[in-house]
Each structure stands twice: as structure tokens, then as C-alpha cells.
Amino acid sequence: MSRGNSAIADRGFHWLMVLCALCIFAIVVLISTELIAGSHLSWTKFGFKFFYQIFYDPNTNQPLYWDPVNGEFSALPFVFGTLVSSFLGLLMAVPLAIGVAVFLTEMCPAFLRGPLAFLTELLAAIPSVIYGLWAVFILVPILREHVNPLLIRTLGWTGLVSDDNPTGLGFLAAGVILAIMILPIISSLTREVMLAVPHSQREAVLALGATRWEMIRMGVLRNARIGIVGAIILGLGRALGETMAVTMVIGNTPEIHRSLLANGSTMASVIANEYGEASGNLHFSALTEIGLALFIVTIIVNALARILVWAVTRGAPARVS
Amino acid sequence: MKLQQNNFRSKVRSLTDAVASGLAVLSTIIVVAPLVAIFIYLVYKGASSLNLDFFTKIPKPEGEPGGGMANAIVGSGILLALASAIGVPIGIAGGIFLAEFGRGTKLANAVRFTADVLNGVPSIVMGVAAYALIVRPQNHILPFSGHFSAFSGGVALGIMMIPTVCRTTEEMLLMVPHAVREAALALGVPNWRSVLSITVKTASPGIITGCMLAFARVAGETAPLIFTALGNSFWSTSLDRPIAALPLQIYIYAISPYDDLHRLAWAGALVLIVLIVMAVSLVRYVTSRGVLKGAS
Predict the structure, then answer these.
(1) CATH number of A39-313
(2) Predicted complex: ipTM over 0.85
(3) DSSP labels for chain B?
(4) N or C: which end of chain A has fewer CB within 10 A?
């Protein structure tokens, strides 16, 4: 083989690799153009109003958000459902995730650390449809028989829980299953950020006579707080786009209720339910626009989270996963 | 007096310390509990409905007892093979670019960032894009387009594999010491040869691990398949027709009203989770053993 040939081969190989790397950009461009082209019809008909308009049924004067028969579409109930279920999920997951991360980094005996890290890894690897299966047959009956009646008895006066939905499905069920699903990602990232805090910080606080909790609070959590916020935002990104488990337990009605025990629907769940059998071009286009909104929001949320986590772990040794 | 006050404060402080430690332990227990619950139920429900029929028969019509999910297992295999054929080569090549050619360049940083962000895009959006790209157009520019098909499902899953494979490949390649590359180049080996048969080969256990991780992730994906592969109650191995997939059948059976189908769903979930746990354990074993034996 002559030298000239290998130079050509080298350059060819180089550009082949560049081309494959550029595929990643191509995918983003492809997805965006497909979604924008698909949602064109809905965008020209409704404009930005799509995300907040409310229609009223002329006969009963009840609010009507999503009416494929008459061709009237509003994403409001789905935006509401996504926000409420994700917020409920975060509310339950964040304190637990930080607790787990503190336990794993600061106080866990060495022999437990490996198995526990493995368990959280497994929790992240379970497919969402299996969480959904578990939720439908185990979690929802528990909520229906025990938790919901208790909540109605104790918190009924707030108006946030009401007993007009006896199925056990709804926002609360979706929130609980979301919390279980986003816990591993938040806790493993929080752990990573906490590990990136230099040991000298801990030693300095301990040397001043702090107890272990004071050391964690002042020396570790305070230094890692930006990264922890990043981890929480990343968890939020997961929760916003989570589809299967939520679709299986949220009840799937395009309505807005004050009660957390009521049925609802999220942006991802309405796409999962209706996209394959959309009736008419406008219905299809409206669903695509919801998909586009989901795409843009998750990209922003993920980019923000990555920047925050990166800002903290920049100096730390690279991790394998 | 002053001494007593200090004594009191230190008591409060040590109490706070104990309470905080207790809360951390408690939250760990609360987190581990659902996992254990999920596994116990899965094994209990799944094992009691697993039998030979499950692996060899196709589903009976709704409401009739018996039947299995042989077509879904084969279908998942076909979809995953197609997804790997798309995702693995492009992902590995992208990783090679990031680690070997683009180190420190703006382009590499942009690719890395985009891959990370793409990793967080919900899988349902991938399904929507694959539907709009392949299933909906009636002009037949792309192969198998115009209707639900195994091909469109495989493409959606393949696209999802690319960012994961790309990033793990990069991380594994970065662990190969520079001396190895320099030694190869000093012997007059062309650069492409040195990358492929020295660097990539050294890192290959790690790269295979990364591919398996991506594989395990898309193996359980349901959302992108609902309106691409669609599912099928009969035998089908054609790329041009709707095909059954294990996670998809679990979803369809779980929301059906029949007890027999619920049992099939549990059995399918057990099979799926066993496959995934095996993949994750293998990954963990390989990484803990030292990905690059003798390289560091």
C-alpha cells in the first residue's frame, strides 16, 4: 500500500466519522421540520390561542376543550394535566431523592453502597410500560381502597380532593408513579454532584466542630445546590414527556378539574391515545402541534439542566455510564 | 449558666443530626420499597402464568383462554435488530468522531450537547416524527411508507439508540491511553487503521456494553411503537406490515378487560424485565471488572 492511498483513506475515514456525527444534527432538524410541517394546519387556524382557548358547548354551556367531532381543539387541559402530574411527581420525588443521595454519599456503609447503587440503576432501567402495569394492578387499587378515602376525610375541606371519581385513577396516581420513575435520575445526578464537592470542604467544616448533618448542610449541599437544581430540572424533563405509565393511570379525559383525584389527560397521553386514529387533518395537526410543544419544552428543559449539572461537575473526574 | 446553655445547644445540634440521618435512611428505605414490591409482584404474577405455550403459541382471540406471545417475542427481535442496524454504526462512528477527531473543537462540543439533549426528548415525540415521516405520506418516496409497518417502528427505535451509543462510545474511547495510539502511529500504521484496530478494539468491551445499555433501553420502549409498528395478533415477520412487540402487547393486554390477557401481560413483563436485568447486570459486571483490562 503506497503512502498516497493511505492519506486518501485517512481523509475518507475522517469525513465518514464527521458525517455520522452530523447525523445527530440531522435528526433534530428532521424531527423539527416534520413536526412543524405537520402542525401547520392547526397553527394557521388557532394560532397561539391553541394553548389557552376554551370552547363552550352551545347546548349546555359547559366548557369543551377538545372536540374532534366539531373540529375544535384546545391544548389547555393537556398542558394543565402535564403540569399538575409533573409537579405532584416532583413534590414527592425531590425530598426522597436528596435523602437517598445524602445517605449514599455521606453515611452509607461501604458494603451497602454497591448494591444500593445497582438497585437505583435497575429502577432506571425498568421500562415505563411495566411501571404502568404495576400501577394499574397494584397502585391504583391501593389508592382507591385506602389512600383516597383517607385524603378525602382529612383534606376534603381544601377542595383539592373530592370523591366524585371512585376509580382510583387520576392525577394523584399519575403523580405517584411519576415520582417513582424520576427518583433514580434525580438521586443519581444529585449523588454525582455531591461527590464532586471537594473533600477539603467537608474537612474544613468538620474541623470547626460541626456535626455530620451540619457538615452536609453547610459543606456539601450548599456547594452542590446549583447541580441539584439541574438534577431536579432533568427529572422534570423526564416527567413532562413520560407517556406509557401516565396514560395507563390518568384516566384520559380532556377535562380540567380542581380535584387531584379527578381524571385528566397529559400532552403525551393524548398523543398516545389518539394519534394513530386521528379523525381528519385538523385533529392530526392539533395532535402534532402538541407533540411539537412537548419537543420544544423538553429540549429547553434538558439544555438548561445539562448546563447547570455541567457547571458543577466540570472539574470532577469523568464518569462512566 | 453559660455552660448549661452550650450544653443545651449541643444537645439540640446532635438531635438535629440524628433526625437528619434518620430521615436520609428512611427515604432510602421508602425508595427501595417500591422496587422490591414491583419485583416481587412481577415474579409472583409472571411466574404463575408462564408456560411453554407462552413462548410457542400466538394469542387466542379475545376472551378465549390460553395462547402465548411467540409472535410478540419474534416481533421485538426483528424491531430491535433493525433498530441496532441503524443506531449502532452511526452511534459508534459519532463517538469515534467525538473522541478521536473532534476533541476540543466547537463542532464536537455542539454534537455532544445535542446528543445529550436528544437523549432527553420523550420517546413519544420520536414516534410522532416517525409517523409523520414514514407512515402518513402516501407518495412512497421512502421504502415501506404509507401505512403502519415494522420498518417505521424500527426506525423510531434506531434513532433513539444513536445518542446513547454515541456518548458511551466516546467515554470508553477517552479511557484508552494516548501511548497506545502513539505506539501504533509510530509503527507507520495509517490513522484510520490505528483508530479501528487499536483504539476501538481496546475499548470494545466498553463499547459493546454501551450498545447493550442502549439496546436494553429501547427494548422496553412502547410509546414510539403505538402508531408505527401498531401491533399484530398474528404471525408476521414482514417489514412492510404491522408487527407485534413485547412491550406493546403488554400495554394492550394490561388495559383490556380480560383476566387471561392480564396474566399474559404479567408473563410478558417478567420476560422483558429478565432480559433487561440480565443486560444491566452484564454491563455492571463488565464495567466493575475494569472496562479496559491492562490499558490503564
Answers:
(1) 1.10.3720.10
(2) yes
(3) -HHHHHHHHHHHHHHHHHHHHHHHHHHHHHHHHHHHHHHHHHHHHHHHH--HHHHH-PBPSTT-S-B--HHHHHHHHHHHHHHHHHHHHHHHHHHHIIIII-TT-HHHHHHHHHHHHHHTS-HHHHHHHHIIIIIS--S--STTTTS--HHHHHHHHHHHHHHHHHHHHHHHHHTS-HHHHHHHHHTT--HHHHIIIIIIHHTHHHHHHHHHHHHHHHHT--GGGTTTTB--SS----TTS-B--HHHHHHHHHTSS-HHHHHHHHHHHHHHHHHHHHHHHHHHHHHHT-SSTTT-
(4) N
